[in-house]
């Protein structure tokens, strides 16, 4: 599966970020080869976020000019709502999120936030407005407090502690021998997948962005951890415009709207119930995943109750 932000892409960025001494969550998620492509327009003003209304208007894009990936996407994401993007592998879900973060410029159409074309505002202001919870969180060989504070330059210890509470990881941290000063990462305490995700959520809470992109983890967390994290995510989505790139349908049922992408086009959109009634691609995917869940349960418990 293609990840929204690949660890290898991150390595180069992390290196440059450290070299420049810049603490900028946005640049950390930049892709190594995109800097030259995307430039601020001369005299570009900063983005002014009023409510966080996101619109894609006839968006066309291809990584390679000979192969169009997004083929005319129209999406209206009301301020404060949660939209889940689903669809077959390779449909263009992660690409859509990268476009909103302006990793790439479009070949047609435009994306606006509160009416401002994102290609006409400064990249810094755009990326300050958008928080990303990636699939895999890169932890620095530093303290857990530093790893959370990384969400925003100048975050105070109190803000870090509040964010840890919001991400439901404060109790875990307080129980560590050195609390927020405990070293984590390669040369420190190893965190589980779920704990790392909570650090990513806490980082995002420190940043406190009006717009969120959640790249749902494909890696298997046990179902209890997954349900707990899902509840935390739903809490931080409140009051923010949220785009969830979903690889499993079980986590998108609560979304205000589900957008089904297929081969770079919006195939259908609606609520979970509407899409099931429609009996189209979503209903088909739902039935298939339900079957897989059932098969998985049987495999896990072959002698289970009849
Ligand atoms: P998945 O569910 O598997 O993550 P997706 O719907 O998120 O898939 P994308 O990652 O958006 O799909 O990819 C859409 C298409 O663009 C795929 O055919 C992919 O091979 C291609 N693609 C993705 N990233 C790049 C890139 N950096 N350069 C060239 N092509 C790419």
TrEMBL record:
It is found in: Cell membrane. The keyword ATP-binding applies. One of its GO terms (molecular function) is ATP binding. It comes from the Bacteria. Residues 54-288 form the ABC transporter domain. Keywords: ATP-binding, Membrane, Nucleotide-binding, Transmembrane, Transmembrane helix, Transport. It is a multi-pass membrane protein. Residues 288-306 are annotated as: Disordered. This is ABC transporter ATP-binding protein/permease.
């Amino acid at each position: 599966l293609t990840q929204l932000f690949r660890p290898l892409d991150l390595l180069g960025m992390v290196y440059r970020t450290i070299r420049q001494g810049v603490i900028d969550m946005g640049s950390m998620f930049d892709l190594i080869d995109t800097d030259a492509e995307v430039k601020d327009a001369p005299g570009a003003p900063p983005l002014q976020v009023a409510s966080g209304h996101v619109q894609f208007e006839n968006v066309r894009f291809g990584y390679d000019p000979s192969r169009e990936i997004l083929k005319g996407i129209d999406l209206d994401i009301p301020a404060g709502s949660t939209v889940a993007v689903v669809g077959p592998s390779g449909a263009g879900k992660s690409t859509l999120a990268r476009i909103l973060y302006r990793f790439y410029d479009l070949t047609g159409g435009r994306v606006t936030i509160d009416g401002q074309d994102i290609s006409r505002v400064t990249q810094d202001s755009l990326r300050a407005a958008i928080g990303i919870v990636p699939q895999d969180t890169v932890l620095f060989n530093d303290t857990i407090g530093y790893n959370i504070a990384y969400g925003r330059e100048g975050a105070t210890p109190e803000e870090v502690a509040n964010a840890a509470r919001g991400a439901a990881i404060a109790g875990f941290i307080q129980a560590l021998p050195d609390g927020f000063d405990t070293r984590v990462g390669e040369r420190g305490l190893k965190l589980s997948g779920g704990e790392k995700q909570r650090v990513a959520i806490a980082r995002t809470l420190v940043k406190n962005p009006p717009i969120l992109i959640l790249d749902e983890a494909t890696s298997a967390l046990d179902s209890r951890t997954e349900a707990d994290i899902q509840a935390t995510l739903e809490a931080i989505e409140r009051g923010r415009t949220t785009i969830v790139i979903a690889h499993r349908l079980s986590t998108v049922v609560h979304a205000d709207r589900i957008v089904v992408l297929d081969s770079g086009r919006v195939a259908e959109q609606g609520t979970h119930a509407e899409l099931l009634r429609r009996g189209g691609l979503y209903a088909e995917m739902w039935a298939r995943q339900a079957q897989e869940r059932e098969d998985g349960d049987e495999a896990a418990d072959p002698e289970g109750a009849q």
